[in-house]
Amino acid sequence: MTRCMPPSIDEVRIYFSQKGLSAAEAECFFFFYEKKGWKNKNGASFKKWKHIAYHWIADVFKYEPWRFNKDIH
Measured between alpha carbons, how far is 45 from 24 in angstroms, rounded to an integer? Predict the structure, then answer.
């Protein structure tokens, strides 16, 4: 099984920007998972970083929807 490489911070910034979130939010996500070594609580590496980013963004939208750029959505 091949392991996907962790994203660069620029890839994360672009992805979050496309979803209407700030670079600061992207950096929070990136550094949170960078500190964890891009592994889950069981120590397994994540296969798709966009999958965990999607859930991070969904939580922001659910609990703090005012943080989204309304021009994008």
Answer: 24
- Phi, psi torsion values for 37, nearest 5 degrees: 70, 20
pLDDT-based confidence at residue 5 (cuts at 50, 70, 90): confident
CA 48 vs CA 38, 45, 65, 67, 69: distances in Å: 10, 9, 25, 25, 25
CB 39 within 8 A of CB 52: no
| pLDDT tens readout for residues 31-43 | 999 999 999 999 9
What is the rounded distance in angstroms from the CA atom of residue 60 to the CA atom of residue 67? 8
